[in-house]
Amino acid sequence: MSVEVEVDESDLAEMVEQVWESYLDPEGVSPLIPTYDENQPSEVHSSVSITGSWTGHVVYASSRAAAQRAAAAFLAMELEEVSEEDISDTLGELANIVGGNVKAMLPPGAQLSLPQVNLSPEASARFPNTQRISGVYGVWEGEPVSISMWQSSTDNKEEGA
Amino acid sequence: MTPMRAMVIDDSRAMRMILKRIVTKLNFEAVEAGDGKEAMDLLADMTEVPELALIDWNMPNMNGLEFVTKVRADPRLREMTLVMVTTESEQSQIVRALAAGAHEYVIKPFTEGAMIEKLALLGLVPTGANS
Fold first, then answer.
1. Which domains, from first to last, does chain A contain?
2. What is the ipTM for the molecules in this complex?
3. Tens-digit pLDDT profile for residues B17-59
4. pTM for the whole thing?
5. Are A22 and B109 in contact (CB < 8 Å)?
């Protein structure tokens, strides 16, 4: 089964704003500043897969420095205290939170996977037969961060059928 | 005065740390579990049952809904206040969790203030604890 995607960039932007307000920038002093550049580089990424009424992936990607800063903010640590495990845990939870909220906007029947974390660039991600359909791209304290949705092309084909 | 105890159940260590930080600020002693099964195992060994459990939904081994159902079926654990803390925000999921016996439902992402407000509504925030 396939559905028309009802999650657009403004929905994603609103979710991202909530994540920043809740965990990454509770004081409201360093928001994610939009760049609208979907080709901005990344060094690490995390993702969750959604299957069912919509099939695809939600991906959080950033530079390593931004990931380290996110972990420090999430875990209330100093930057120099942040470990690889802290970065990995934080990236996974960020993908889980955004992915979970995306799923909530889809028609009933969507299932969310547990998060996958890759301490490698998003460009190296293995999302075969998918197409990026939406995203929020920005810089956070000068470092690139993006949240994007990748739709399975199988889903696309079914939509056109 | 004996501090209250809270069990923080989430497969994300990062989220456990956030929740632990909040409940510790409210003078709870916090115990962590990485999934529902680990939480049940810990509860089986406890002589005193925690007053509060903050429970993620999507976890390996035993998910949050299964945990809530098991707790509600155990008379020894019936005094525990159960709060789901999850990204599962569809109305149908909230209804399922409350029907299974959860007392409250907090959707991620949440601010510290929003979480404390929910716990205050449940009577779990001692006066002056959040100062």
1. 9-160 (3.40.1550.10)
2. 0.83
3. 999 999 999 999 999 999 999 999 999 999 999 999 999 998 9
4. 0.88
5. yes
